[in-house]
Design goal:
With 174 residues, the chain is α/β, with parallel strands linked by helices. It has helices spanning 3-9, 16-41, 82-85, 99-110, 142-155, 161-164; strands spanning 46-49, 55-58, 67-73, 90-91, 94-95, 114-121, 133-136, 168-172. The protein starts with a helix and ends with a strand.
Length: 174
């Protein structure tokens, strides 16, 4: 068996790199798709990748007045839930930020310039029914939304349900 055959027939020891590339491919493809949507509208927009968030879109390239922050996450299978989005991983006994906490951090840093905070995924979030495009977290059933608000309020200082919950959206093309 030659070198090419060895490389193509022997199972790889790890798939972590490929998984990371698949996730970046999704993020890049989704970001380019968003960029094309904005371009089609003919507005003077700007889009940045891996700058303050996975993707950020500005309402104007020259004199922006608002920004939409996108947190792009993939899953091989299974649904998202508010509990998963607000889950805080621990490292050496220290709780890290949840996805929702990272999203909210944009409000802390950029205040009223934040137009929306959008969680984007290749898998659905059943709490929020999305036919195509974006849907507000606040469209969820009241009891489920209250759990989300409670979890994020515990995690971050200054979370105001009346002001901030309306900024959270979910995007899916499923």
């Amino acid at each position: 068996m030659g070198v090419k055959e060895f490389l193509t027939h022997v199972p790889e020891r790890e798939m972590g790199g490929q998984t990371a590339l698949d996730r970046f491919d999704y993020q890049t493809a989704w970001g380019v798709s968003r960029l094309l949507d904005l371009h089609e509208k003919g507005s003077n927009y700007a889009v940045a990748f891996e700058f303050h968030d996975d993707i950020v879109a500005l309402d104007d390239a020259d004199e922006p007045s608002s920004a939409i922050f996108y947190q792009v996450k993939t899953r091989a299978t299974g649904n998202w839930s508010f509990a998963k989005i607000t889950q805080r991983p621990s490292s050496r006994g220290i709780k890290k930020s949840s996805f929702a906490g990272k999203m909210f951090d944009n409000c802390v840093r950029f205040g009223a310039t934040v137009e929306r905070l959008v969680f984007v995924s290749n898998q659905p979030l059943p709490e929020v029914i999305v036919a195509h495009g974006e849907e507000k977290f606040s469209s969820a059933e009241k009891a489920k939304l209250e759990k989300f608000v409670k979890a994020i309020s515990v995690e971050v200082d200054g979370y105001d349900d009346n002001v901030h919950t309306v900024l959270f959206f979910f995007f899916s093309r499923i």
